[in-house]
Design brief:
By secondary structure, this protein is an alpha+beta fold. It has one helix spanning 2-17; strands at 34-44, 49-60, 63-75, 79-83, 89-95. The strands form two sheets. It has a three-stranded antiparallel beta sheet, with no helix packed on it. A hairpin with a 4-residue loop joins strand 1 and strand 2 (49-60).
Length: 101
Amino acid sequence: MKKILLIPLFTLLLFSCTNDSNEEDIVKDVPKDGAIESDIKVEHLNDSLDILITQYKIWKNGISIKNGATSDTIPSLGFKDVYDENNNKKQLRETMTFSFL
């Protein structure tokens, strides 16, 4: 009897752990009563270097009390080859970009 209950329970547990949604934490409006707003972006400098730019704004009681920005030079990810629908390599090379999670 216990084995019969274990199989549906395990199946239910397995399906409840998967997350098929592609939802991201996208903030449309910052709560300005107390928050740190940040913006991170990467600009390509040359073939071997990128620039990581971090901008921030600190909010307290609806007022921006401090703004700032930092920039760092980081190694580039390089290029990846571009293939057509027949899996033939094209002459173009695409710049690889960083992912922010």
